[in-house]
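Example: Major facilitator superfamily (MFS) profile domain-containing protein.
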Amino acid sequence: MGSLTMPSVQTSLSISSFEHITAVQVPVIGGSMSLICVDTRDDQTNNKDKGWAWVVCVGSSLMMFFTFGTHTCFGVLLNALLDHFQETKARTAWVGSISVNLLFVFSPITSRLAERYGVRAVTIAGGILITFGLFLSAYAPSLLIMYLTYGLLFGIGTSLCGTMAQVITVDYFDKHLSLATGIVASGSSVGTLVLAPFLQFLLERYKWQSIFKLMAGIGILLSIIGLIFKPVKDQNEESLVRRRQSVDYGACSMSGVPCNRFGLFDCGIFKNKAFILWVIATCSAGFGYFIPHFFLIQFSEEIGIPRSQGSWLISYLGISSTIGRILFGKLSDVCCIRNLPIYRLCMLMIGLASTLCPFAKSYEALVAYVIVLGLLDGSYIGLMSIVTLEIVKINNIIRAWGILYFCQSFTYLLGPPTAGMMYDYFKSYKSVFYLAGASMIFGAIVLLFVPCCTPTNIQQMANITLATPNGTPIRTPDIIITDVNNNSQLLVVEKLTSL
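Written out as structure tokens, the predicted fold is:
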């Protein structure tokens, strides 16, 4: 890469001999935050972006399809577990909540395991845990055993496979890294779209135990996919590790910066009062986030809609959510309004939609609800990373993202069981959706006070033109310079959120 020019700043930055520039997308729950990593290294034998890399990309997308798709479609399996164990909705919902919690909580540990044992070994171990977890769940005599087999083993297994599926692309791609990451991330949305009606189709013909055994076989397939994650020979292993960490749920360390400076649980970030309010608001919203995913099918059945039709509601939710993430990502890029007010308004509207959901009396009304919910969910998921960036600024984004994910995982854990407890007490799904709506509305109210506490120090913005050695411009994004430690790497972050 020839040079970097900064026309909106009086001084210019020129760094020569750039061999790689890649746009890395830090995944959130189906969304991403775009990072551009520019590496200078002597890489005379670069085999990236070629045939085998795309095999790895497809394999990673299949992992996302199954791991994240199964979690978002747990509401379909919940019906079968309720019918079999004849337990309360609150106790049964813990099965799915524990696995979702471990999917996120275990991801930092997964990262450390990958650094020590390698991506391939961790992925294979994840597939084995998924296989054992689902196979043993098929023989579980009680919900307590299901908490251990499905909740613990399957949850940790999906964390191992899901996390590795998202970080492995950095090892195999440079030029097409952004495209590859987008393909991998789309696997979760496609999984939500396909798995919900497919699982319901199987449940109408076979026992749930047989389906769990079939899904256990998919765990073996994931382990086989892990075998294609062969180690990459890179002459600069330290650079490779840094680039891999940059997409691992934000739990990374900047180039040349000691890990303890950007520690995942560095509580110094809580000196920012706006961030404290942001954590409270998003955790409150997270409390109600999975409630519709878990109980919407049962509510539709209560008003006379067959399960075969009700399962499609989750698919419609997945489709509209994908569209919403793209729309709000583009809106964030072109709109002159700050992202926080957009986020707050969407959170409020999600709450109101969930509050009105119990008044739906037809299938068409529920379809309208899930479409609205999915489109607005595009803001909740797609803009979360960007609003976090606006609140804590770029120097604190790594530690802030890790703490935010950690705190949210526990509200994901508690939300559905609490909703089930509400139903068991009131014998009505009105209370369930009121709880989902109230948690979102409360979060929106808390966000009203964030601007009052937001720090005034603003990162310097610059328009940077990237050009090839012959002077041909590549692109001109609006970006924030985040860290320049030496001549080996420059890390910058885009304003755009997509996919």
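DSSP finds 19 helices and eight strands in the chain.
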